[in-house]
Amino acid sequence: MEPFVNEENGKTAGIISYFFIIGWLIAYFGFHQNNKTSLGSYQLRQTLLFHLAWMIVRWGLGMILGLIWFTTGVFSLALLLWAVNIAFFVLWLIGLIGAINGEKKPIPILGEPAQSMFSGI
């Protein structure tokens, strides 16, 4: 009976970790830290890289495009931010569906590198 509970905690941790950094922290400290599972570790590693990549790309691109808009008045570059947001949403959705199904399904582009970058989780 105990392994079933552990895998359910891993699945729960994986699902919660997709909901922003606060969800990741709740999943790690509340579900994973004292009851580690391979599924939970897998999902936590890939969502950590996903959240970090989203913040860096979104904020960095936002600052660069904001400067361009401020200096040139070209507002159409803001459409690029929409495209970036949509791309990250699609990646997020693919990962979340995998977590809900209890699968170790990598997020395209980010899933595999996350497994080696954050192997300590």
If you average the pLDDT, what whole number results? Answer: 87
SS-based structural class?
Answer: mainly alpha
Largest sheet: none
List how many beta strands DSSP finds. 0
Helix content: over 70%
Distance between the termini: 25 Å
General shape: elongated
Low-confidence stretches: 1-5
- Please give the radius of gyration in angstroms: 17 Å
What does this structure look like?
The chain is an all-alpha fold and 121 residues long. 77% of the residues lie in helices and 0% in strands. The protein has helices at 2-16, 20-32, 38-72, 78-100, 111-117. Helix 1 packs parallel to helix 3, helix 2 packs antiparallel against helix 3 (38-72) and helix 3 packs across helix 5 (111-117). Mean pLDDT is 87; it is low at 1-5.
Briefly say what this structure is.
It is built from five helices and no strands. By secondary structure, the chain is mainly α. Residues 1-5 have low confidence and may be disordered.
Give the secondary structure arrangement, pairings included.
Layout: H1 2-16, H2 20-32, H3 38-72, H4 78-100, H5 111-117
Helix pairs in contact: 1-2, 1-3, 2-3, 3-4, 3-5
Spell out the key features of this protein.
121 residues, mainly alpha, disordered N terminus
